[in-house]
Amino acid sequence: MYRIGQEEIDAVARTLMSRDFFKINGAGHEVLTFEKEWAETVGTDYVLTMTSGFAGLSSALIGLGVGPGDEVIVPGYTYIASALAVTAVGAIPVIAEIDGTMTLDPADVEKKISPATKVIMPVHIQGFPSNMDALKEIADKHGLKIVEDACQADGGMYKGQYLGTIGDAGAYSFNYFKVITAGEGGALVTRDRTVYERALIYHDASAVAFFGSQLDGISEPLFGGTEFRVSDITGAILREQLKRMPTLLSDLRSNRDKLAALVCGEGKATQAPSNDINGDCGTTLALRFDTAEECRAYQAKCAEKGIGLTVPIDTGKHVYTNWTQIMEKRGAFHPAMDPFKMKENEGLQMDYTMDMCPNTLDYLSRTAYVAISPEWDDATLQKIADVMNG
Q: What does the domain layout of the chain look like in residue ranges?
């Protein structure tokens, strides 16, 4: 969490005191209003607020008709929820390499495409924009869909377009660790009416037909789904957080750039490449080293003087080798519901090995992250730089 204050407190109090804070209500309509405001901000047609980024991803896949017999290409460096969203709909995640930008490598995506491939899922990890031009070209060439995982990139951009809105559908997360937060929460965005209708039904199958006029104009038939609905308390907090987002991102980007100018350059650390440094959320300065040993030495030197750097190979469930459920092929508790055991998925690309993405493991081992604070002033930045350059 970056910034929160009295405005969020007042919004929650207002919502609670209305005594009418179910999503469909006669009072504040906070969730529905947030959806309109988010759509206007990022430039999309449809928004559905949900309980998590995972909810948004799985609902997007359902909306695109993904299921047993299908493959979805995901990067080997992303939170496990990206891959679990694929298994949640009965499909198989195909794990591809990242490149030097720490995002999905288009060249390896091309290699991993098979007749069963249906979706490419770029992940804008740490707010780093993926190479959307190259991925869209590949998707168009092979007739594939793109679902963007923008769960760590609220407000991030790629060449002037908001991340999450470039593909066929996108998902965001608003949990405690994200750019803006309601503690928990997420959203799906799309310009595709069919995807929206299916996601609407799927994400709230037990209630969407019974509260308000949510099915007005919906032509897709009802089907069984799940329940990812949020209350107006979440919506009220997110409306205030959205107001903070432009200034927050501006401050993050500014401090990232200032620190990079101080610690990167001739004879100093090297900043990792970016697909769009200006659109990058600025939450993280990524430093690249020639070897893992040099990276660890730099991390240790900074740690001795109180500056903590993260080497992403250490980030647990963000690294494919630690995706226990995927690597051990247990996609569901009941075998009949497990996509790894489904007849429709026989012969698909699920021969996972610990060393199947060597480039990914290499980049993760020789990159160091500096977490950026939007509250740092110039004096603080200079102190941090002095330690890092010492």
A: 6-241
Which residue, chain included where needed, has tokens 């495409």? 113
Average pLDDT, the chain: 98
* Beta-bridge partners for 218: none
Residue environment code for 361-382, b if the CB has 16+ CB neighbours within 10 A, otherwise e? bbbbbbbbbbebebebeeeebe
Query: What's the CA gap between 75 and 262, in Å, rounded?
Result: 31
Please state whether beta strands 157-158 and 270-271 pair in parallel, antiparallel, or not at all (unpaired).
unpaired
Dihedral angle over CA of 222, 227, 231, 237, nearest 10:
-110
CATH 3.40.640.10 fits 6-241, yes or no: yes
Give every CB contact of residue 249 below 8 A, 6+ residues apart in sequence.
155, 156, 179, 281, 282
Cα distance between residue 181 and residue 208, in whole Å: 25
Q: What is the pLDDT of residue 267?
A: 86
Q: Which two tokens stand for residue 148?
A: 């963007």
Residue with tokens 């019974």: 210
Share of the chain above pLDDT 90, in %: 99
CA distance 165 to 278: 17
Q: How many residues in the chain?
A: 390
Upper half-sphere CA count for residue 6 (Cβ side, 13 Å): 0
What sign does the CA torsion over 125, 39, 24, 62 have? negative
**Do 96 and 73 touch, CB atoms closer than 8 A?**
yes
Residue 368 pairs with which residues in a beta bridge? 287
Please give the sequence-ordered ranges of beta strands (E in DSSP) within 242-310, or none if there are none. Answer: 270-271, 284-288
Q: What percent of the chain has pLDDT over 70?
A: 100
Cα 350 to Cα 94: distance, rounded to the nearest angstrom: 7
Closest CA to 97 of 87, 107, 82: 107
Averaged pLDDT, 164-191: 98
For residue 276, give the amino acid letter. Answer: D
C-alpha–C-alpha distance, residues 93 and 71, integer Å: 6
Residue 351 has pLDDT above 90, yes or no: yes
The pLDDT assigned to 266 comes to 87
Is residue 74 a contact partner of residue 82, using CB atoms and an 8 Å limit?
Answer: yes
* Chain centre distance of CA 211: 30
Average confidence (pLDDT) over 157-169? 98
- Provide mean pLDDT across the span 197-210: 96
